[in-house]
Design goal:
96 residues; mainly beta; 1 helix; 5% helix; PRC_barrel-like_sf; PRC-barrel domain-containing protein; PRC-brl_dom
Length: 96
């Protein structure tokens, strides 16, 4: 068993872009989103952002995110007591 909290998240290019700080579940206990610590340097300037669970891929190389660093920059910060806006994966170009 592996704990998700604190895990590094890599972007499509394989570089670490964030760390998982929380998992958001629905009333049935199914994961719907993760909250990530994103950006900053040495902890300064970090923001907490939410991404849909389906944007993540889990494999032997760790957790990978289907969003680029540029896409992550545009996600609004998660703030206590406010509605959470989460990023979703880009549409699949092969889908009809």
């Amino acid at each position: 068993m592996v704990s998700l909290l604190g895990q590094d998240v890599k972007g499509p290019n394989g570089q670490v872009v964030a760390q998982i700080t929380n998992v958001v579940v629905d009333l049935a206990g199914q994961p719907r989103a993760v909250v990530l610590n994103y950006g900053g340097f040495l902890g300064v300037g970090r923001r907490r952002i939410a991404v849909a669970w389906r944007t993540l891929r889990f494999g032997p190389g760790g957790v990978t995110l289907a969003l680029t660093r540029e896409q992550l920059r545009s996600i609004p910060e998660v703030k206590e007591g406010e509605a959470m806006t989460m990023a979703v994966p880009p549409p699949d170009p092969a889908a009809p």
